[in-house]
Amino acid sequence: MLTVSVVSHGHDRWLPTLLQQLARTGAGCIAEVRVTHNLPPTQSLPAGPWPFALVELHNASPRGFGANHNQALQTIGTPLLAVLNPDITDMADGFWPALVHAVQRDEAGCAFPVLLNLDGSVQDNARAVPTPLALVRRRLLRQPDRRVDWASAACWVMPEAVYRSLGGFDARYFMYCEDVDFCLRLQLAGRRLVPVPAARAVHAAQRSSLRGGAHLLWHLQSLWRLWTSSTLWKYLRSRA
Q1: Greatest alpha-carbon span in the chain
Q2: Per residue in 164-196, is it b (16+ CB within 10 Å) or e — as a string?
Q3: What is the pLDDT of residues 111-132, one digit of tens each?
Q4: For residue 124, which of 184, 203, 177 has the smallest C-alpha distance?
Q5: pTM
Q6: Phi and psi, residue 100, nearest 5°
Q7: CA distances from 177 to 47, 120, 171, 209, 219 (A)
Q8: I want to staple 123 with a disulfide (CB 3.0 to 4.6 A). Which of 115, 155, 166, 188 is the partner?
């Protein structure tokens, strides 16, 4: 059984559909869903009944991505947990059982699904660590990533003990790269990232950092924090 943490940054219109999807695909797997409203909601969540406990958390002021999930998952009563974006839709049948089964294998630390764009194409939600050289190859030279070092935290399932042993997300990353940092620390601790082809869903997100403004600034600040972190260099040495 698992606890699902969802953070809404004004995603109120997505939440009813998400809850219906979780009810349909997570029966027997999901014990509790915790929704953190990082901004004041404009509408109430449907009352249900739901096949899981539904808990709402309301922030007095906005927090970063990692800080919100750390807060929601501070104390849970299930052996597994999930980090989930509110704009994940069209989950395939067997979505949650496939992820739960995969993460219970030996040395598995985090299971993640195949995410699709709205047009049905496969998202690149599993990538190489974004070093300056890797970004040049990817953005300027249009070369595919040579390996997978991290998976987007749009959807993760992992043992609660693994999350706890790593201290959760590093909340110093306000937004962006907190999932990169977590995945690197997880692998340094001897755990594996496990892709699950049988678990497929649509991720309707748009990458706000590419539109400029505050998101671009947060992205650049997070990249700098990552590039100057001991975690990154320890990981690169371990893979050399």
Answers
A1: 52
A2: eebebbbbebbbbbbbbbbbbbbbeeebebbeb
A3: 999 999 999 999 989 999 999 8
A4: 203
A5: 0.93
A6: -65, -45
A7: 35, 26, 11, 12, 8
A8: 115
- Count of C-beta atoms within a 10 Å radius of residue 231: 15
- What is the CATH code of the structural domain delimited by 2-238? 3.90.550.10
Paired with 194 in beta bridges are 111
d(C-alpha 73, C-alpha 82), whole Å: 9
Query: Strands 150-151, 126-127: parallel, antiparallel or unpaired by DSSP?
Result: antiparallel
What amino acid occupies position 4?
A: V
The backbone torsions φ and ψ at residue 78, rounded to the nearest 5 degrees and listed phi first, read: -120, 155
Rounded distance between C-alpha atoms, residue 73 and residue 48, angstroms: 22
Contact 31, 96 (CB under 8 A): no
Cα(91)–Cα(95) distance, integer angstroms: 6
Query: What whole-number distance in Å separates Cα of residue 76 and Cα of residue 101?
Result: 20
Place of tokens 């497929």: 200
| C-alpha pair distances (Å), 212 with each of 121, 129, 208, 225, 236 | 25, 22, 7, 19, 29
Two structure tokens written together for 33? 């869903």
